[in-house]
Design a protein that fits this description.
The chain has 244 residues and is mainly β. The protein folds into 2 domains: 3-77, Type Iii Antifreeze Protein Isoform Hplc 12, CATH 3.90.1210.10; 88-205, no CATH class. It contains 1 helix and 11 strands; from the N terminus they run ββββββαβββββ.
C-alpha cells in the first residue's frame, strides 16, 4: 500500500494548547486516505515572529493534524472558531440553580425554559428551545473539562432566529436550562403550563410555534360537577350538581 507521511498527535491535545514539536510525530498514512488539509511536516508548526499555533479543536493521540483544527501563528483560542457556519453563539445568564448546580459543561446538550407571568397574570412555564449545544461556561470553552463550575453565564449554539427568541424571552421572564442526554435528539411537542386558581390548577397549553413563543389558545376549563346519588325507594339515580 502506498503511504504518505503526515503529522499526528503524540498524546491528547486539549483545546487552546500551544503546539510544539514534542506534541507531534510523523506517521505513515494510506495515501488515498490522507485528508486534504492534513499537515505534512513540522515546518508548518514552527514558531514564527507572530507566535505559536494553538489547537482550536481537541485532538486525540494518533489523530492527524488538520489545518481546520489549528490556528494561524499567534492567534488566540477564539470561541468564534468553534461556531459553525450559519450559526451563532448566544450567552444567557444562569445561577447555581438555573445552571444545573454547576454540572453544566461545554459540549453538553440542553433545553431552554421560560417562566413568566402572562397577560392574565397567571404564572406560566414553557420549553422554548430544545437540543442546543453548550459552547462555553463563563470563560471556559474546553470540551475536555470535567470539573463542575458554578457559572454566571452559559454560551450556547443557536441559529440567527433562535437568538431573537432568546433576546425576547430574557426581557419577559426568567430563563433556566435543563440538561438532557447527549444522545437524545428527540424534540417532543411540549405545551405551555399555566398555574392559576381555577378548578384545574395546572392547565396544559398547546404550543403555537416551533419556539413556544407567540399567541396561545387557552384550553377552556369547564366547571367541575359533583355527583349526588339519589335513592327513591328501590330506584337509584345520579344527579350532577354544579360546584359554581
Amino acid at each position: 500500500m502506498e503511504t504518505q507521511k503526515v503529522l499526528v498527535a503524540t498524546r491528547d491535545i486539549p483545546f487552546g494548547t500551544k503546539l510544539s514539536a514534542e506534541l507531534v510525530e510523523e506517521a505513515a498514512w494510506p495515501k488515498g486516505s490522507v485528508p486534504a488539509d492534513a499537515i505534512m511536516s513540522r515546518d508548518e508548526l514552527t514558531a514564527s515572529p507572530q507566535g505559536q499555533r494553538i489547537a482550536i479543536r481537541s485532538l486525540v493521540a494518533g489523530e492527524p493534524l488538520l489545518r481546520s483544527k489549528i490556528s494561524d501563528f499567534g492567534e488566540k483560542p477564539k470561541l468564534s472558531r468553534r461556531v459553525p457556519l450559519a450559526m451563532r453563539a448566544y450567552s444567557v445568564r444562569v445561577s447555581d440553580v438555573s445552571g444545573i448546580s454547576g454540572f453544566l459543561l461545554p459540549g453538553d446538550r440542553i433545553d431552554v425554559l421560560l417562566t413568566r407571568t402572562d397577560a392574565k397574570g397567571q404564572l406560566a412555564a414553557e420549553v422554548i428551545l430544545q437540543d442546543l449545544t453548550v459552547l462555553g461556561i463563563d470563560q471556559m470553552s474546553d470540551e475536555d473539562a470535567d470539573q463542575p463550575v458554578v457559572a454566571k453565564t452559559a454560551t450556547i449554539q443557536v441559529t440567527p432566529e433562535q437568538t431573537q427568541v432568546l433576546a425576547l424571552a430574557e426581557q419577559v421572564g426568567t430563563l433556566s436550562l435543563a440538561l438532557r442526554n447527549y444522545a437524545d435528539g428527540d424534540k417532543p411537542a411540549l405545551g405551555k403550563l399555566v398555574l392559576d386558581n381555577s378548578p384545574a390548577a395546572a392547565v396544559a397549553m398547546p404550543a403555537a410555534s416551533p419556539h413556544g413563543l407567540g399567541v396561545h389558545r387557552r384550553r377552556e376549563v369547564r366547571p367541575r360537577n359533583s355527583e349526588v346519588i339519589v335513592r327513591r325507594g328501590t330506584a337509584v339515580s345520579v344527579e350532577a350538581v354544579s360546584d359554581q
